[in-house]
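Morning F.,

Quick status update on the modeling queue. The single chain you submitted on Monday has been processed. Sequence for confirmation:
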Amino acid sequence: MLEASHYKEDDVSRFNYYVAPRYLAQQRDEHISKQRFSIGARADIAPHVDDRSKTYRLSAQALHEEYQSESNTKTQQAITSARDTEISTTLAQAQLDLPELLLSDKHLHLIQVGGQVQQDKLSQTKNQVSELISDDVSRDVGELYLQDDWLIGDNWEVLSGIRYQNDEDFGGHTAPKVSLKYNHLDASGRDHVFRSSIGGGYRVPNLKERYYVFDHSNLGYKVMGNPDLQPETSTSYQIGYQGQLSDTMNLTVNGFYNEIDDLIQTDEDNASFEAISPFINI
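Structure tokens below.
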């Protein structure tokens, strides 16, 4: 499967910018373009053609995205600020579904293994001078994961997995997860499903959050990247119930609880005259 897309946008905005002792009328011309290319494939590898449960299934995808932005700010038709930005992402991923592993009549395992490699790049200049710590910044990251869907009899299911991520800036991290499901069929033939899960989360700040300048001066604010950001870590808990109470009534109840450390979000800098919001960890 091959896909390609192109997007283009041209915007003109007018605003007043305060330069003591008066406001100056300004105009910003912005030109944005985005391109996306992807290719994917899926193949069944069947050592035993007559038994589909012994089939290996391989899927793979590659993707490349590019974003370009050119923003010129003018005062009385003279360009006072020219900002150019380029962002790109290149990604390749693959997943292998193993044949069904039947240990007994009541124990069936469905196992998946996979991996992903990704490279992000960012460059941004203002008046042809880089606004970054270098002319351009990049990020390389690789991931591996393993998942086991364990079916126990007709009622129980245990889904467990583990994901390892290695980032060139933040090193390695392992995040496990496990969930449990129980299906109950009551005497009236109505289904009742009980679920619970616990899992670790991990998110590395992307290049935009670390370095990019979101300049919306025409709207009265800026959002600034922060190169000192640290990754988010979290533990998530979930419990739920879904059931048929009668022929005309169903009930679904879910509860969630998340513990998050170093959450990444923006925070307004009150010491600045201009509304500037840098990304921070909280």
